[in-house]
Every structure is written in structure tokens, then in C-alpha cells.
Design goal:
Layout (H helix, E strand, L loop, with lengths): L8 E2 L22 E11 L2 E12 L6 E3 L1 H12 L18 H9 L1
Parallel strand pairs: 1-4
Antiparallel strand pairs: 2-3, 3-4
The structure holds zinc ion.
The site of zinc ion has 8 residues, from loops.
Length: about 110
């Protein structure tokens, strides 16, 4: 089920139930594994990356699941413009113009 955060799915079962075997809801009986993931989204006119998000990842299809509390916290921080939270690192991002790419691809 999609939630308010781009690219993040709500976990089918809360990861706190770590003793349980949690399976991917897209694959047939594939157990999810604990992992830390990153996501990126547009915030105002800038690209923002959040890394080290606790998640469950399907080794079969790669689907990533994040628990509801984590998604709510990320949504709340986005809504507040990350006020009071300093970025861990600046990340230079290459920006390509499609028209320029067409010219380069043609040469
Ligand atoms: Zn899967």
C-alpha cells in the first residue's frame, strides 16, 4: 500500500516484530530482510535525499518497506521543511538538460 512518502511502501507487518518471518506481499513466500535504504524527492525547488532509513527489503524483487511510524516522521519533517534538522552532507547532483542530451547523443 502506497503512503505519503514517495518511493516508500508501508511494511505489511511492523518490523518491531523482528522475531516473526515477514514475507513480501508481492512475491510468493520470500522473507524480507532488515536493511537501511535511501530515498530522494523534490522539496520546493531542491532535491533532498534521506539516507539510512530503517526498512525491510525483499531479496526477491527488491521492494522496500518502511514502517508507518518512520513514514509519518519523514512526512512530518518534510512538512516542516526539515526545520531544526541539519543535513548530514551536501550532495552535488549533476543536472542534464534534455535538449543538450539530444545534441550529445547525435554526435
Ligand atoms: Zn518481493
Amino acid at each position: 500500500m502506497r503512503n505519503g512518502c514517495n518511493n516508500l511502501d508501508a511494511a505489511p507487518v511492523h518490523p518491531a516484530a523482528a522475531g516473526m518471518r515477514i514475507v513480501c506481499d508481492r512475491c510468493d513466500d520470500v522473507a524480507l530482510r532488515h536493511a537501511h535504504i535511501s530515498t530522494a524527492f523534490w522539496q520546493d525547488a531542491g532535491l533532498v535525499v534521506i539516507r539510512n532509513i530503517p526498512a525491510m527489503v525483499c531479496p526477491g524483487c527488491g521492494e522496500e518497506y518502511v514502517d508507518d511510524a518512520t513514514v509519518v516522521m519523514i512526512d512530518r519533517m518534510r512538512g516542516a521543511g526539515f526545520a531544526g534538522c541539519a543535513a548530514a552532507d551536501p550532495l552535488p547532483v549533476p543536472v542534464f538538460d534534455f535538449a543538450e542530451m539530444e545534441r550529445c547523443a547525435g554526435s
